[in-house]
Amino acid sequence: MSAIIQIRVDDDLKNKSDALFKELGIDTTSAIRMFLAQAVAANGFPFEIKKRTANPYVALSEEKIIEKLDASRKHAEEGLLKNADDVVLDMRSKYGL
Q1: Residue 31 CB coordination number (10 Å)
Q2: What's phi and psi for 24, nearest 5 deg?
Q3: What is the DSSP letter of 27?
């Protein structure tokens, strides 16, 4: 026996999600089933939910931004940097990506 779930969403959200899931090779109903299955498997939301915080760079003055850029350039000149591929590999191993 199958249960029916009905939800109301904004037309724009529905159209955009339909298009996205079509590009991914599934329909919206299947995507919702996948979400529910993952929520049950994770015993909670299958993704992190957190309060949106303000952008920390909005409050920076132009002077502060230039200071940070200068510090970044100095670090690069001193060799205090990481290869992007190494950073990606590190993130993948840490977070199972």
Answers
A1: 15
A2: -85, -5
A3: -
DSSP letter for 47, please.
Answer: S
Burial bucket for residue 26 (CB in 10 Å: 0-12, 13-18, 19+): middle
- In 3D space, the residue among 47, 45, 68 whose CA is nearest the CA of residue 57 turns out to be 68
Q: List the alpha helices (DSSP H) in the chain.
A: 11-23, 28-42, 62-77, 84-95
pLDDT digits (tens, 9 = 90+) for 52-80: 776 766 777 889 889 999 999 999 899 88
User: Cα dist. 5→32, 63, 70, 83 in Å?
Assistant: 10, 54, 55, 48
DSSP state of 1: -
Check residue 8 and report its DSSP letter: -
What one-letter code names the amino acid at 90? D
Task: Compute the average pLDDT of residues 36-45.
Answer: 94
Q: Which residue has the tokens 């299958």?
A: 46
Token look-up 């904004």 returns 10
